[in-house]
Write a structure and sequence with these properties.
The chain contains twelve helices and eight strands. By secondary structure, the chain is α+β, with helices and mostly antiparallel strands.
């Protein structure tokens, strides 16, 4: 699989902080749950110090069960004086070394967002040393990643590289199967090829950054969709998979072909509208995520898109989107998507309104 310079990862199951609590799992306080949501938003924006501040502002006694484990792991990971590596169980020395390089980069970049470029340069230098003569002509990450991907494939692994804003990505898995799906989007049907990925060794920086409390559910290119099978605990026939993955990612697929060059946040904005237009069982959880994980930073496309979606739906509805019925929410999200499409077509080259 060819690496892409920018990876449009699905927000599918991105935030386990918003998942329903199991019946036998003790329930944390509302303050603790809000703190976890805030820490998630901070990590997605690439800032572990802000995530720690959110978690430490609430007493540890208010976090129960898996929430308490998450808080403890986050405090241990980001109060450490040096990067915490989680690769000791990997037997392949080449893969273990590569993941060590990436986890070191992720930890340092999250701890000091202003030094991301410096840490990326350090990662490039480490990869040059690790790959040797095969990477001698590579002058930047986009050039060295295909060399790394080839090496990983020779060791028996599939990989997704590129950038999942704001950090460089490395997801690694062993198993991959292909299936075709017919997907009905608000603007028409699409037939898409889906690569079903399983047996993961690394779920990428978003999982590492949050002590494996959830991860991206997949991504899209202009050729196919890629699904992280293990993230869909209700199965591939569930609404969760059909809406949060297939609907979301097929909208990416359609938009990358219809409107080349869209910014990452624009792709996420439109895909999130599709989720709200089509979801019923998952709607409350997805909307809660969009309401609580927001930012003004375009380099954090998920959280920036969340803010734009909520703001635009609030204007359209005349009230907050969590204050209306599911039918009203679905209709408003669909109408907002169609309005956005009309505006994009009007501005496209060759139209009367194009600039």
């Amino acid at each position: 699989m060819k690496s892409k310079a920018t990876v449009f990862l699905s927000s599918a199951l991105l935030c386990a902080a918003f998942a329903a609590t199991a019946a036998d799992e003790p329930t944390s306080s509302k303050t603790a749950i809000a703190a976890i949501a805030e820490s998630t938003s901070a990590i997605l924006q690439g800032d572990s110090a802000r995530a720690l501040a959110a978690l430490e502002a609430t007493p540890a006694t208010e976090f129960l069960g898996k929430d308490a484990d998450y808080r403890a792991c986050m405090l241990e990971r980001y109060h450490a004086r040096k990067p915490v590596l989680t690769t000791s169980s990997i037997e392949d020395p080449f893969l273990r070394g590569v993941l060590d390089d990436y986890q070191d980069y992720w930890w340092r970049s999250l701890a000091a967002p202003a030094q991301r470029d410096k840490q990326e340069a350090a990662l490039l230098a480490k990869l040059h040393k690790r790959l040797g003569a095969s990477a001698v002509k590579a002058t930047n990450m986009d050039e060295i990643e295909p060399v790394l991907q080839t090496q990983l494939e020779q060791h028996g692994y599939h990989a997704q590289l590129g950038r999942t804003p704001p950090l460089r990505e490395l997801m690694v898995w062993r198993k991959q199967d292909t299936r075709m799906y017919d997907v009905q989007l608000p603007e028409g049907p699409y037939s898409v090829r889906v690569e079903l990925l399983d047996d993961f060794v690394s779920r990428g920086w978003m999982a590492y950054g949050r002590c494996d409390r959830g991860s991206a559910g997949g991504w899209a290119t202009d050729k196919a969709l890629y699904a992280v099978v293990g993230r869909y605990t209700q199965g591939l026939d569930s609404e969760e998979f059909r809406v949060v993955f297939l609907g979301h990612e097929t909208q990416h697929f359609a938009d990358q072909n219809a409107f080349p060059g869209m910014a990452s946040w624009e792709l996420e904005y439109r895909a999130k509208l599709v989720e709200l237009a089509q979801g019923r069982e998952v709607s409350a959880k997805r909307l809660d995520y969009m309401l609580t994980a927001q930012s003004d930073d375009m380099n954090s496309p998920h959280t920036y898109a969340n803010k734009r979606v909520v703001a635009d739906l609030t204007r359209r509805l005349g009230k907050s989107p969590d204050a209306v019925s599911i039918d009203e929410l679905q209709a408003a999200a669909r109408d907002q998507l169609l309005a956005d499409t009309r505006e994009r077509k009007a501005k496209a080259p060759g139209t009367a309104d194009a600039k």
